[in-house]
Write a structure and sequence with these properties.
By secondary structure, this protein is of the alpha/beta class. The chain contains 13 helices and 14 strands. The protein folds into two domains: 6-227, Glycoside hydrolase/deacetylase (TIM Barrel, Alpha-Beta Barrel), CATH 3.20.20.370; 233-407, Gcn5-related N-acetyltransferase (GNAT) (Aminopeptidase, 3-Layer(aba) Sandwich). An eight-stranded mixed beta sheet has the order 7-8-9-10-11-14-12-13, sandwiched between helices. Strands 1, 2, 3, 4, 5 and 6 form a six-stranded parallel beta sheet that branches. Helix 3 (47-55) crosses helix 4 (75-96). Bound molecules: zinc ion (ZN).
Length: 410
């Protein structure tokens, strides 16, 4: 037998259910940890069942409160659906005594709002702190063509069609046979290994026997089911014992400073220097300190992620997670705004913008880093700030022009 296998992640929608713990046990018996996309109304009914899954190392994601089609909702209604469920999921994690590793969202019916509402919903999700699942190695052309590689919501590469079981169990042989098909560019690529990794979608409410049979059939495929990478990345404040690993990283990616200065920084602003670890591996850092100009503000001085794209956690939204952890730390310390100077780089500027930062200043500097000019963009609109930035570069003949970004975390 060929030992080529590919990686797969299992996502299960419309959780939890009354017999949820049994289903979690079935997965555990097969060594699979799943992402369960939960409905708020079911979390209200089965909180203990949901907490059980969390304690077993599964992940709960948000699937709205009561499963509406999002293309039929206003943005306010969409926010209400999502927020209500977020509060319930946070409660479950608290109840389970487990830190919530990630905020993931899947649209009911995979209805992402359609052309009219898609962009608005994506920025709503971003603004609410959702993160792209960032499953690596999804190489289907259709996946990219449909833009899934850039979206916040979690799609799937293989839909088991198990939702058809609501019409009766007679459909089950057809669902099982479908897994044997080889149509990778039409969403049926389980048998192509090596090939694209897979995100498999099932439903939590299907008959229990069908649930087991579908799982068993999946395990005959050349797939290695992995726990979501988010479980292995943890963000925490650094302390002085992290000198040996965090300080060289900072010197390589951001500011160079002596070990003594670094230790003083960490001592003075404990809690505003955070690091993301994947096991023992340092995946990224973020740090800052109280503003010297405004009592209610904190300066974000540096943020960087390990750029080695071979790392299993590469391109999993760790930068955004670090940013949100920093914002939380600032909020807890009473800071009402966060200010940062972006690198003179469209990619970095886009990163801040997509995380809810808006430009509040433009600074032109010469090659020695001396400030040549500074101005406030006329309005918060991205285009006008970008245009003024380029104009200022020409007017002052600057070596670099930087945008100053600000965010008021709520
Ligand atoms: Zn659903």
């Amino acid at each position: 037998m060929a030992d080529a296998v590919k990686r797969a992640w299992l996502t299960i929608d419309d959780a939890p259910t009354e017999d949820f713990m049994r289903r979690v046990d079935e997965l555990d018996a097969r060594g699979i940890r799943a992402i369960w996309f939960c409905l708020g109304e079911l979390l209200e009914r089965y909180p203990d069942q949901a907490a059980y899954a969390v304690r077993k190392g599964h992940i709960l994601g948000n699937h709205s409160y009561n499963h509406p089609a999002f293309s039929k909702l206003s943005l306010d209604e969409a926010r209400e659906q999502i927020e209500r469920t977020e509060r319930l999921i946070d409660d479950i994690y608290r109840r389970a005594g487990v830190p919530r590793p990630v905020r993931l969202f899947r649209f009911p019916y995979l209805d992402d709002g359609g052309d009219e509402k898609r962009d608005g919903l994506q920025s709503l999700l971003r603004g609410m702190g959702f993160e792209p699942a960032g499953f690596p190695g999804i190489t289907y052309a259709w996946w990219k063509r449909q833009g899934h590689h850039e979206r916040i919501d979690v799609a799937c590469t293989y839909d088991t069609w198990d939702w058809k079981l609501q019409e009766g169990a007679g459909i089950l042989p057809e669902l099982l046979a479908r897994m044997d098909e080889r149509e990778p560019e039409h969403g049926r690529g389980l048998n192509e290994a090596p090939g694209s990794n897979e995100v498999v979608m099932m439903h939590a409410w299907i008959p229990f026997d069908a649930f087991r049979l579908l799982l068993d059939k999946l395990l005959t495929k050349p797939l290695r089911f992995e726990p979501p990478i988010h479980l292995s990345v943890r963000i925490r404040p650094v302390d002085q014992a992290d000198l040996g690993i965090v300080h060289p990283f900072q010197c390589e990616y951001l500011e160079r400073e002596s070990a003594e200065a670094w230790l003083r920084r960490v001592e003075a602003h404990a809690g505003l220097y955070l690091a993301a670890f994947a096991g023992d591996d340092l995946a990224g850092i973020v740090y800052g300190h109280p503003s010297r100009h405004r009592d209610d503000a904190a300066d974000l001085k540096g943020i960087a992620v390990n750029l080695d794209h071979r790392k299993p956690y590469a391109r999993r939204g760790i930068g955004s997670r670090l940013l949100r952890a920093f914002e939380r730390a600032c909020r807890e310390r009473g800071f009402r705004r966060i200010v940062t100077g972006s690198a003179d780089d469209p990619g970095v500027e886009a990163f801040y913008r997509s995380n809810g930062y808006r430009p509040v200043g433009i600074v032109a500097k010469d090659a020695a880093g001396r400030e040549l000019a500074r101005e406030v963009p006329a309005s918060g609109e991205a285009e006008s700030a970008d245009a003024r930035k380029e104009a200022l570069r020409r007017e002052t003949n600057a070596a670099e022009t930087l945008l100053i970004f600000e965010k008021k975390p709520d």
